[in-house]
Structure formats: structure tokens, C-alpha cells
Specification:
276 residues, 3% helix, 24 strands, seven-stranded antiparallel sheet, Jelly Rolls, mainly beta, 1 helix, 42% strand
Length: 276
């Protein structure tokens, strides 16, 4: 399991492009036929990808966790961005269509991933945080989620936000998770930006073709930098950093948060006039 150590806002201004990318960007998570994990000291979050083909993939118990099993002290969110698949939790199978989201609570031991069709495999994005309590495993079906529309075509940020794991939806210890879909012709996400000192946030970008990119803006509002992000890549955002961006075309991204506050609206605005 790879490990990403976060930089603080003192070290951050002097980092090179490669240092920024190796610290805040996680790539290479989605290899056909494999399950890959990366751990960060940012609220002890783990991100991962599982692309099962003809055989089932099992969630391992990395030595770095010093746990009896992966979810002994953790909870897990799973978003399927591929073909039809299944997540089996302690023998109970949960079918997941594209953009269905599954929450798996603390204490569940055997977690397995499979695809209905190896020619059109499921692609599971995994996000895990430590958990102080056990909550029931539950599914948020895309067809049942009520999206919130924001932005306009005139400002190139018409988008729909879908909340899956949150205070008014699937309950958790600290994980908050959902995704945003941008309309054709719109490219800006989370603009104007914000920070939130009470929790970290992780962006997983997807639905980009091979030639498209997102310019992800990060850092303190008065000292921003950028990361050039491709399809199925993840950006780690510490509490002191904004997290927004613009793409060369429309795209989608999964947002996930962990920390001491699950209130989705708990944000510290960073007006555009203050950005540098």
C-alpha cells in the first residue's frame, strides 16, 4: 500500500511541481483485475480502486493498519463508475449499477468485489476513514438520489450534486460522500471555492477521455497552485486548501470528506476577489 505524507502550508509554497504531484495527487489506482490502495496521513484516509474481471477481488488487510481486518476500526464508501457489479459484505451481495454508492460500516470483515461482465467490468472507487462507531451497511441508488442543480451555462458551471453518505442520507461515523456531474459545455466545479478547517476533502475525477484534463486549483486562497489531473485520478485536499477547478470539457468527480464535522454546509468561503 502506497503512503502519501501531507505537506503543511509552510512547506507548500516552496514545493516543485513534482513534489506537489507526489504529495497531493494519487494515480494508478485502477488496474484491470486488481485492487489497489493508497494511505495518507490526511485524517488517516485510504483511497483505492478495484476493477474485477473474471475473478472476485477481496479487500485485503494491509500490514500498515495493524488491524485484525480492514474495517476493524474503519468505515468504507464505494462508488461504481463502470459496468454492473457486486460488492459482497460478509456473504450478503449488494448489486451496484453505474453511479450506485455503497456504505460499509465498521466491523464488517469479508468484503469482495465482482463484475457481472468481464468485458464491461465494474470500476469501484473506494474511500475509507477511521470510525468510532458501527453503522449499518446501506446502498444509495443513483436512480433514487435527488440531485441539487447549481450554476448556469452562462458561467460554464451548470452541474448537479448528488449526496449519498451524509447526515440526511446514509449515516456514518465521519465519512461524507457523493458526486457531481457537470453538464455538457460546463467545466468549472466548486466555484467560488471554499475551505473547511474541520475536515479534509478528497476529489476523485472521472468520465474524462484520454486527451482531456482538469486544472485543479489548490492551496491557501492567497497562494494558489494547480495540478493537471487526468481521468480516474485523485486529489487530496487538506483543511487549509481550496479545491476547485476547470476542465477542457465536462466531467464528473466524487467528493469525500472526513473529520470532526459532517455538516455539508460547513464551509469557509473564499471569494474570487481574494484569490491570488
Amino acid at each position: 500500500m502506497r503512503f502519501h505524507t501531507m505537506a503543511d502550508p509552510v512547506r507548500y509554497p516552496g514545493m516543485t511541481t513534482e513534489e506537489l504531484r507526489s504529495t497531493f495527487l494519487v494515480d494508478g489506482l485502477f488496474t484491470p483485475g486488481k485492487l489497489t490502495l493508497a494511505l495518507t496521513d490526511l485524517d488517516r484516509a485510504i483511497v483505492g480502486g478495484a476493477v474485477p474481471l473474471g475473478t472476485t477481488l477481496s479487500l485485503s488487510n494491509p500490514e500498515e493498519l495493524r488491524a485484525s481486518f480492514f474495517l476493524e476500526r474503519r468505515e468504507l464508501g464505494v462508488l461504481n463508475i463502470g459496468g454492473a457489479g457486486n460488492v459482497t459484505v460478509n456473504g450478503t451481495k449488494y448489486p451496484l449499477a453505474r453511479l450506485d454508492c455503497l456504505y460499509v460500516g465498521r466491523g464488517e470483515q469479508a468484503i469482495e468485489f465482482s463484475s457481472e461482465d468481464a468485458a464491461n467490468p465494474a470500476v469501484f472507487y473506494l474511500l475509507s476513514y477511521p470510525a468510532h462507531a458501527a453503522h449499518p451497511t446501506a446502498v444509495a441508488r443513483f436512480t433514487e438520489l435527488k440531485g441539487t442543480k447549481l450554476g448556469t451555462p452562462e458561467t460554464a458551471n451548470a452541474r448537479t450534486i448528488y449526496k449519498a453518505i451524509h447526515l440526511e442520507g446514509i449515516r456514518s461515523s465521519q465519512l461524507v460522500m457523493g458526486f457531481t456531474l457537470l453538464e455538457p459545455g460546463s467545466v468549472w466545479n466548486t466555484m467560488p471555492p471554499h475551505t473547511h478547517q474541520r475536515r479534509s476533502e478528497i476529489y476523485f475525477y472521472f468520465d474524462l477521455d484520454e486527451t482531456s484534463r482538469v486544472i485543479h486549483l489548490m492551496g491557501p486562497p492567497q497562494e494558489t497552485r494547480n495540478l493537471i489531473v487526468g481521468d480516474r485520478e485523485v486529489v487530496l485536499s487538506p483543511p487549509w486548501s481550496i479545491h476547485c477547478g476547470a476542465g477542457t470539457r465536462n466531467y464528473a468527480f466524487c467528493w469525500g470528506m472526513g473529520g470532526e464535522n459532517q455538516d455539508y454546509s460547513d464551509m469557509d468561503a473564499a471569494p474570487l476577489s481574494t484569490l491570488r
